[in-house]
Amino acid sequence: MTGAGSRSAPGGPGRRPAAAVPGEAVRARRAAAGLPAQGPLPARPFVLPRGRYDELFETAAALLALVRRAVLALGPTWPDRLVALGADPADHPPHSGLEGAETDCCAVLAGADFLVGAAGPQLLGLDTGGTLGSPRETGVLTRAWQRAAAGLPEAPLFGHDPRTVRAAALADLCARRGLPRTVALIGPGFHPDELRELRAHGFTADLLPRAGVRGGPGPRSYALGLLGGAPAAIGGAADLPKACRAGLLLLPQPSSGLLADKRALALVSEGLPWMTRGERALVERRLPWTRITLAGRTSWHGTERDLPALVLAEPERFVLKRAVAGTGPVVAGHATAPEVWAAAVRRAFGLGDSVVQEYVRPAPRPLELSDGAAVRTVRAAAPVLSPLLFAGRPGGCRVSFPAPGVPASGAGPSRLPADAVLAGREASD
Whole domain around residue 334: which residue ranges? Predict the structure, then answer.
């Protein structure tokens, strides 16, 4: 994996003149695209060997498919599945009542967060509920690095552009469902230049700052509606169920959030009767041990243990997470006082609204940052890789770096700038 720095240079520990590092050309493209371009930014691209890059998307797609199947098996309808999973209806958008559309499209837009540990990427969580980050930002950075890194040993660099893949996936979805290519980008999370790629694929596309959109025939109606964030954060979102019943196919679907609920990950981690030997091996290799915070006995590395007692007895081995992202803090036992950990465990098992996950120790990498005048090396950056999938297709990848002391969860504060992940040749690993 590159994007890594090397030895220090005269003039201060870990600093050397910026000279013509490729990151400065990317800084200019960030600024031209209206992206944050001030302060320290990556001096070099974050590169994976092409085989590992492709494997990351394949792994994300396979684990997403397992989670989708596990959720569908919980009940005959989406409201039944929500109850069976133990989810709170208040944490999820109202069901549209369109069972077929919700089942067909619940995983069309998806992302995954993999923390890079000693055993390789480990899945921390899925995102199918409309907070995928910025496909536009990832696309801009992917193309910028491809241009700026032409003379590097890893070149030529390869990277999927999320905007192109998303447009192609939506065009195929319209063809499969017999829909006209009309789409509204709803909410504040979109940029006007995101319309360009959609229009290049034959879409009539508009930006709507709030959810004033209709389905069915009419001059201001659309076949597809893409949400630029969580529905609750979008003005006029209360009208969306009515628009769906009138013919609008909303993406992500209201049901999509159940796939991102970490209790669904726990079902897959524990193992289901229909899983094949290969699927179980994949889960063992890439999904950390995860359980719903419900009292009872469970398997733990070849033993059977009482779950609450295990979590209390070995805090350094575990992380507590709310099942629905953003509804509460992530609590890491190794970084928490014993009395605080005990209280968090009591709360989680009392409410059953969380999961306990085996702690994945990051495998930190050096990261070179340039501020325009000099380059310094951060010696222990812990990367979280976030591949995007559009209807199962690889759609670009982002890397972020949780701040020290913040449990890696795929989200949260970071003192280091996020970047795109690319594929190429590596001089060394």
Answer: 289-358
